[in-house]
Structure formats: C-alpha cells, structure tokens
Design brief:
Class I SAM-dependent methyltransferase, Rossmann fold, 245 residues, methyltransferase, binds S-adenosylmethionine, 8 helices, transferase
C-alpha cells in the first residue's frame, strides 16, 4: 500500500469541498449509518477527521479516529486543539491495530480500497470485526469495484476521474485524480473484485453484507439539475457497504 498521504494531506482535505462529496458521498454514508446518537464509534482511515468530527456532532457518545498517516492525524489533532470535541486520534495501521475497544459502529471512508491482495483485505476485515460488539455494524464508502473502466471518464465534470494503465485484474492499481479549483492531484487505490470482498467479509465472520448504490441528496437539486447528476448516478465511482457482526 503505497499512497503517501503525508504529502497530499492538504490537497485531500480540499477535495472534500467538491459537491459530489457532500451531495452523494456524505449523503450515502450518513443514510447507511442511520441514527448514531449515543453510540460508540471507531472511524478507521479517519484522515484529517472530516467525517470523524461530524460523527461527534451528530451525537455519537464516543469517537476514536485511526489513521496511519502522521500528517493526516496531525491535521486532525490541530482541529481538535482549536475546537475540542473529545475525539481521540491514534496513528496506526488498521491491519495491525489489534483490539482497542468494543464499538457499536466501526466506520471507514475509503479504507478497504487500499488493500492490494485478498490477504491484506482479510486482515483489515478481521481488525474491523474484532473491534465490534456482537450485533455491531461496519459501514463504509469505498471504490465501486463494479464500475466498468469504459465509464471512468464519465465523472470528469464532477472533478474526479479514475484511470488504469493495465487491464483490471486482482491487485491492479487504479489512479484516482481530483481537480479542485484548477489544481490536480492523484493517488492510487487497488482493484479487488466484489467476490473477493464478499469472501473477506464472510471469512472475517460478518453475518450480513449489504451493498448500497450512491444516493443523491435532495439539497443537490437546489444547486444543479437532476440531469447534471445523472452521469454520476449512472456510472457511480463509489459504493456504500454495511456489514453486520
Ligand atoms: C482517501 S483517504 C480518506 C480519509 C477519510 N476517511 C475521509 O473520507 O476524509 C484514505 C485514508 O486512509 C488512510 N489509510 C490507508 N491505508 C491505511 C491503513 N492500512 N491503516 C490506516 N489508515 C490507512 C490514509 O492515510 C488516508 O488518510
């Protein structure tokens, strides 16, 4: 897993300003999460805390964020120092996290797509499972591994595209490129098939797995037409997943 978030931390933070992040990504994520009031929550690959802070504001009883990028956690801790929310941030690799608690919810936005082999994916899923209470839920938004490369350019007008330099196969790098305010930056994720994901969730012990297509927030239509969003919805680059322990 090679993406160095220490160097792109600030650009990544800025990419959260793109409209699809709010109107599709966050809307779908929070739809899957449902009511989190009073719940204990572990946010894996929390980055600089973009979602982590929102979970606390939405009433989660306790929130812990984990990321393996020192720079991302430094930015998250700076925000926590400026406006304390009682969030604990830990620098750790999720694959080597061990058990740090027994949470109602483990969440992750774009974590699993950093694994390049099914063994790495299984280690992540086992870590997630181990930190959940029985009956607890894992909720994530992730690269949509069912999107055909033929449609990768269809999302260009939203400030985001994927590209590949070899045919899609297990472990193929997929380059994610963002353009925010005319500034471009890229990083790699890896393709693993939906069957591999299903296998890893089941092998880790999850009882139920649900895949959720991206949803468009009603507010999105106050700014742009349905037609504007249709390519994103027809060729969704991201997907929501919910797993129950
Ligand atoms: C695309 S960013 C998403 C950040 C945040 N979830 C968000 O949506 O704003 C992916 C994050 O995953 C982190 N990451 C990648 N592999 C990781 C691993 N094995 N353990 C912990 N964090 C990891 C990166 O450092 C980066 O902050």
């Amino acid at each position: 897993m090679t993406t160095d978030y220490d160097t792109i931390a600030k650009q990544y933070k800025k990419s959260k300003e793109l409209p699809f992040r709010l109107h599709v990504e966050a809307y779908t994520f929070f739809h899957l999460l449902g009511d989190i009031a009073g719940k204990s929550l572990l946010d894996l690959a929390c980055g600089e805390g973009f979602y982590t802070r929102q979970f606390q504001l939405q009433g989660a009883a306790s929130v812990v964020g984990v990321d393996n990028s020192e720079k991302m956690i430094e930015l998250a801790r700076q925000q926590e120092a400026l406006k304390p929310q009682g969030i604990k941030y830990i620098i750790a690799d999720v694959q080597e996290l061990g058990v740090i608690g027994s949470f109602d919810l483990v969440v992750a936005a774009y974590l699993l797509n950093y694994t390049q082999t099914k063994e790495q994916l299984l280690l992540m899923c086992q870590s997630i499972y181990a930190n959940l209470k029985p009956g607890g839920r894992f909720v994530t938004v992730n690269d949509n591994n069912e999107q055909s490369p033929d449609s990768f350019l269809a999302t260009e007008k939203y400030g985001f595209i994927k590209s590949i330099s070899e045919p899609l196969a297990e472990g193929t790098p997929i380059k994610f490129t963002f353009v925010v305010d005319g500034e471009e930056f890229s990083f790699d994720n890896y393709y693993l098939s939906r069957d591999t994901y299903e296998w890893a969730f089941q092998t880790a012990g999850f009882k139920q797995v649900r895949w959720q297509k991206p949803l468009l927030s009603p507010d999105a239509l106050k700014e742009e037409s349905q037609e504007f969003w249709q390519d994103f919805l027809n060729y969704p680059p991201l997907i929501g997943i919910e797993c129950i322990k």
